[in-house]
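User: Sequence recovery, please. Input:
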C-alpha cells in the first residue's frame, strides 16, 4: 500500500522519560515509527530524552518552561508553539491531559493536528467539574482520539466518537517466553502505583485470608499509600510473607519465574503489567474493571480468571484455585502466552500509523 508507506513527520509531546505504562507505550511507538523511517520529533521539558537511541531517526526538541502554574503554562504554550512552527510536524500526539491543554493552544496557533491518547478510565475521573469539562473541551477541539477500549469510547458523544479509534496497548516485554513447562516459584505478584485505585489492600487481605503454605506475595511499585500498606502488613503479622519491592526497571525477570499475577484494581484503562504477565506465561487474575480493559485481555477460565471489583471472597477463591489446581494453572498460563501474537509492537504501531494518515491526509 503506497499510502501506508508514505513517510510522515510525527510529533510527540511528553514530559517524563520513563515512569508509568503510558510513557512506556509512547516510547515503544516512538521507536517503532522511527525504525519504519518516519521523521519523529519529540517535544519535551525533560533533557533525559536527549539520551534516546541515536541510531534511529529521532529529534528531541527541548522546550524552555514546564507547564507549572498559570504563568508556567503561558510560557510553555509560547515555547511549544515556537518549536512547532520551526519544525513543522504533520501531527502532534499527546498521552496526558496535563499536557493536552498546552498542546491544544499551541497546535491552534501553529495549525498542527493534535491526537490525544486516552490512558485512563474516563468513567472514574475525579468528580470535580473542571476536570471533566476540560477533558470534553480538549476532545471536542482535537483532531483525533485513541481509546484503549470500546466501553471507554462509548462514554462520549457521537461527535467525539466519530473522530476516534480503539487501539490496544503493545507488549512492553522485549523477551518473550517460548516454553512454559518449568516449575514456577511460589510467588504471587501485584504491580502498580501504591494508590487507592490499585486496591492492594484487597490483595493483601485476600492473601492473608488464605494462609497459603510456602507462598509469598510481592508488590512492585511506589506511591502515596506505601506507609499505609506497610502498617497493614505489620498489623496482620505478614512481614515475612508480604513484601513491598518498590520500583524496578526490568520487571520481566521477576515475573518470569513467579506463579500467579493478580491485578486487584478498582479501575484501569488497559493494564500494561497484565499484558506483560500474560506474555511471560503467568497464571493471571484480574478484576472486572468498568472500562472493560481486563476483558479485552482475559477470556475468563481460558487464559486467566476475572473476579468482581473489590470482592475479597472471589479473589481469595481464585487465588486458591490457581494454587491447588495445577492443571488449571498450567492451562491458563499456556493460553495466556498467545496474547503475544495480537499485542505486538508492530501490529499496534501499524494501527496508529493508519489512523494518523487518515487525520493528516
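Assistant: Recovered sequence (361 residues):
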Amino acid at each position: 500500500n503506497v499510502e501506508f508507506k508514505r513517510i510522515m513527520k510525527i510529533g510527540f509531546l511528553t514530559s517524563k522519560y520513563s515512569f508509568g505504562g503510558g510513557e512506556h507505550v509512547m516510547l515503544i511507538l516512538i521507536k517503532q515509527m522511527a525504525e519504519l523511517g518516519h521523521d519523529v520529533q519529540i517535544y519535551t521539558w525533560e533533557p533525559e530524552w536527549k539520551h534516546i537511541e541515536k541510531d534511529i531517526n529521532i529529534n528531541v526538541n527541548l522546550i524552555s518552561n514546564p507547564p507549572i502554574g498559570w504563568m508556567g503554562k503561558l510560557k510553555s504554550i509560547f515555547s511549544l508553539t515556537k518549536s512547532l512552527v520551526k519544525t513543522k510536524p504533520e501531527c502532534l500526539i499527546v498521552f496526558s491531559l496535563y499536557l493536552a491543554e498546552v498542546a491544544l493552544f499551541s497546535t491552534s496557533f501553529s495549525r498542527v493536528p493534535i491526537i490525544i491518547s486516552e490512558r485512563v478510565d474516563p468513567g472514574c475521573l475525579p468528580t470535580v467539574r473542571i476536570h471533566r469539562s476540560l477533558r470534553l473541551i480538549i476532545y471536542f477541539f482535537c483532531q483525533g482520539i485513541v481509546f484503549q477500549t470500546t466501553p471507554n469510547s462509548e462514554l462520549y458523544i457521537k461527535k467525539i466518537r466519530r473522530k476516534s479509534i480503539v487501539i490496544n496497548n503493545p507488549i512492553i516485554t522485549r523477551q518473550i517466553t517460548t516454553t512454559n513447562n518449568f516449575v514456577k516459584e511460589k510467588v504471587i505478584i501485584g504491580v502498580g502505583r501504591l494508590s487507592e485505585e490499585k486496591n492492594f489492600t484487597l490483595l493483601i487481605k485476600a492473601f492473608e485470608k488464605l494462609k497459603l503454605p510456602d507462598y509469598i506475595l510481592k508488590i512492585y511499585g511506589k506511591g502515596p499509600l506505601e506507609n499505609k500498606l506497610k502498617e497493614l502488613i505489620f498489623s496482620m503479622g505478614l512481614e515475612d510473607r508480604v513484601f513491598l519491592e518498590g520500583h524496578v526497571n526490568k520487571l520481566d525477570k521477576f515475573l518470569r519465574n513467579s506463579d500467579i499475577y493478580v491485578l486487584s484494581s478498582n479501575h484501569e484503562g488497559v493494564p500494561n503489567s497484565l499484558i506483560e504477565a500474560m506474555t511471560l506465561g503467568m497464571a493471571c487474575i484480574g478484576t472486572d474493571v468498568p472500562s472493560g480493559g481486563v476483558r479485552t485481555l482475559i477470556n475468563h477460565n481460558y487464559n486467566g480468571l476475572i473476579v468482581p471489583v473489590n470482592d475479597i471472597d472471589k479473589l481469595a477463591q481464585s487465588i486458591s484455585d490457581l494454587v491447588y489446581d495445577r492443571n488449571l494453572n498450567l492451562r491458563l498460563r499456556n493460553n495466556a502466552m498467545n496474547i503475544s501474537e495480537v499485542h505486538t509492537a508492530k501490529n499496534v504501531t501499524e494501527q496508529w500509523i493508519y489512523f494518523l494518515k487518515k487525520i493528516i491526509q
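Confidence is low (pLDDT under 50) at residues 174-179.
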